[in-house]
Amino acid sequence: MANHSQLNFQDASSPIMEELMGFHDHALMVALAICSLVLYLLTHTLTEKLSSSTVNAQVIELVWTILPAMVLVTLALPSLRILYMMDEINEPDLTLKAIGHQWYWTYEYTDLKDLTFDSYMIPTADLPLGHFRLLEVDHRVIVPMNSTIRVIVTADDVLHSWAVPSLGVKTDAIPGRLNQTSFLASRPGVFYGQCSEICGANHSFMPIVVESTPLADFENWSSLMPS
Asked: Which residue from 139, 153, 173, 195 could staple onto 100, CB 3.0 to 4.6 Å apart?
């Protein structure tokens, strides 16, 4: 959950999000090295006396061609690795279908039984004490922790986007098309997200709440939910 004046990402709650945060730090260090080099060269140019001596053009051209290429490789390789990890879904333990509407979500647990429910934002006037305004819903998505969850995302009317930052998940919901993503919640907790595609007047009022629980608690919850 993000807080006021937070400058960094939310705490990672899935292996993919940990990889994304690591790549973010790696990219920032590369950018810092580039900025430091440029600052040094600017300072050197402004403070040193001008000289009429010429530099071997072939050498300098070779340097400023190979150096940026090496920088791009150091960014591209870990980026491609994470992209393949995010796209790969092997033998999921549970499949969840998320359907975007104006302006709420419908969830289907088709692996267990015909378990379907709608998830609406709780209005501020009805919000229980201690819950988050504009983020809490009447029916949370309950998933077992340490299990691979496949999420099939689509929409019923306009474009939506199913996004939970701390799980490293963001997938567009497109009418007439099924997109899929996956995540693995590495710890129990409640993770908040929102629709990340402008979808109309109440775009800001269709939050997503994912609750990760131990497997036994998830089985108890699913057995108590009406079909």
From this structure: 173
